[in-house]
Specification:
With about 170 residues, the protein is of the alpha+beta class. It has two domains: about 1-90 and about 150-165, 2-Layer Sandwich (Alpha-D-Glucose-1,6-Bisphosphate, Chain A, domain 4), CATH 3.30.530; about 95-140. The protein is about 50% helix and about 25% strand. The chain has a six-stranded mixed β-sheet. The chain starts with a helix and ends with a helix.
Length: about 170
């Protein structure tokens, strides 16, 4: 799907060496609830951990963390071991914001085109400006997503380490 490619969605599966309950307890120890990060701490995992709905993202102090990738997943039991499966993608609220923003700009371009076509004396400059604005928005959002792509590996490593109790 286009949105999965644009937002760099990646399916992941963590094979854990501990039971589901132990993995949840281990992760809860390392994941901080949103808004509870102490001032001056280093990089941290922020989110919520439950068996059926886990979401975790990296928080970097002094950085706007909106475009950081987020893991969304759930635990499953396989005997003595467990699995944590899900997807790493851009925060879902930010995804909706980007889609809405680009949709509104595209609607502005269509409205301007209709206005220009209905009025032969109208200037094409405003349409070109809006199309340029749409392209600039898409490029900006894509650059911000690419800028945090290294966080995906960090997130995988930290989730694996924390869930296994290392």
């Amino acid at each position: 799907m286009i949105t999965e490619r644009f937002f760099r969605t990646e399916s992941v599966e963590f094979e854990l060496k501990v039971s589901v309950d132990q993995a949840i307890n281990n992760l809860v120890e390392h994941v901080t609830a949103p808004g509870k990060t102490p001032f001056g701490t280093g990089d941290a995992m922020i989110g919520s951990v439950t068996k059926n709905a886990t979401h975790i993202h990296r928080s970097v102090p002094g950085s706007r963390n909106s475009f950081r990738p987020t893991f969304y997943g759930n635990f499953s039991d396989s005997g003595q071991q467990s699995k944590l499966t899900g997807k790493i993608t851009l925060n879902r609220i930010i995804q909706k914001f980007i889609v809405l923003w680009c949709f509104v700009v595209a609607l502005m371009a269509i409205w301007t085109l209709i206005t220009i076509l209905s009025n032969p004396a109208a200037s094409w400059g405003s349409l070109l400006y809006i199309v340029f604005m749409l392209v600039a928005c898409i490029v900006f959002f894509r650059l911000m997503i690419n800028k945090t792509s290294s966080d995906v590996d960090w997130l995988k490593q930290e989730i694996t380490r924390s869930a296994n109790g290392s």
